[in-house]
Specification:
Helix content is about 80%, strand content about 0%. The protein contains 2 helices and no strands. The protein is mainly alpha-helical and about 60 residues long.
């Protein structure tokens, strides 16, 4: 992802906006491809963020 300091909430909000655009029945199908690609990138970023958070939490729990 171009900016690793982004917050999960910001990325998730961007993803929600993309999904809304993708689902818009009035939207031209030729424009949806780029949105789907970007959505897939954001999903991958969110998954990686969650994995990192889980690892940090597990590490904290083991030290207690």
């Amino acid at each position: 992802m171009e900016n690793e300091t982004r917050k999960y909430e910001e990325v998730f909000a961007e993803l929600e906006a993309l999904v809304a655009r993708i689902e818009d029945p009035e939207r031209d199908l030729s424009a949806i491809g780029d949105d789907v690609k970007k959505a897939m990138e954001l999903i991958a970023w969110c998954r990686e963020y969650i994995r990192g958070s889980e690892a940090s939490i597990e590490k904290l729990m083991k030290t207690e």
